[in-house]
Amino acid sequence: MTFDFAPSDALTASSTSLSGDAGHRTGRLLEPAEWAAAGIPLLRSPRDVVAGLHSRHHPTPSTAVVAVLDHEERVVASASFRRRATAADGWDFRNALLAHLRRVIPHDLRRRTPVRTAVLLYCREGDERWTEEDGAWMWGLRDACTLHGLRCGAYITLTRGGWQVLGEGRGGRRPNSLSRPADLGGSGTDSPSAPLRSGAPAALRRVAAR
């Protein structure tokens, strides 16, 4: 398994003003080798998952979409939000992901083994090569899953060139950050009975949230 690397624009822009915290930020990201060795479960149909999330949330650059999948790889809850214009930090990303997960689905901390999986789709500029910003998102996703009782799933980037499941070498040209969302009814990622909603504290049934 091979990875290409590219500099993170977010880190470069903030390197001067935040240099004192550089050591802490460095520890809050996952290198590609660490991610590949973490045993992240493979998606059976990544194209369907990506197409479904793209249709539901219409992500544009700097938009993160976190989704929870059941054992049949259906989306049972999801939320999207814009990344703040600050330095890439896994701690901040973890807190943002955890806050949105708590809004749309109850935790599974009482279970001995996670039964649901969280995946993250991040729409950004650049190409498919791994960046330190990606590493910070990976760190944040893994930590948020642990704190919410979920299995850590795939990290997917969406760029002008298409989508890419980092660490797996799988990807495609469509959808991409410029393509128009397809009809959600044509995606196989969601259960037909799963309603759209914005999240609620007592969300005990399958939900999907913008």
Count of strand segments: 6
Q: Which geometry do the CA atoms define? A: globular
- Kindly provide the radius of gyration, computed on alpha-carbon positions and rounded to a whole number of angstroms: 16 Å
Averaged pLDDT, please?
Answer: 80
Q: Decide which structural class fits the backbone.
A: alpha+beta
The termini sit apart by: 34 Å
Order of helices and strands: HHHHEEHEHEEE
Q: Ranges with pLDDT <50 over ≥5 residues?
A: 1-24, 186-210
Beta-strand percentage range: 15-25%
Biggest beta-sheet profile = 6 strands, mixed
Order the strands across the largest sheet as they lie in space.
2-1-3-4-5-6
- Helix content class: 25-40%
Number of helices: 6
Indicate the multimeric state. Answer: single chain
Task: Write a structural description.
- With 210 residues, this protein is α+β, with helices and mostly antiparallel strands.
- Helices cover 29% and strands 18% of the residues.
- The protein has 6 helices and 6 strands.
- It has a 6-stranded mixed beta sheet, sandwiched between helices.
- A hairpin with a 2-residue loop joins strand 4 and strand 5.
- The chain is globular.
- The chain starts with 8 loop residues before the first helix and ends in a 38-residue tail after the last strand.
- The N terminus and C terminus are likely disordered.
Question: Which descriptors apply to this entry?
Answer:
210 residues; 6 helices; disordered C terminus
What is the strand and helix layout of this fold?
Elements: H1 9-14, H2 22-26, H3 32-36, H4 46-57, E1 63-69, E2 75-82, H5 90-104, E3 117-123, H6 132-148, E4 151-159, E5 162-165, E6 170-172
Parallel strand pairs: 3-4
Antiparallel strand pairs: 1-2, 1-3, 4-5, 5-6
Helix pairs in contact: 5-6
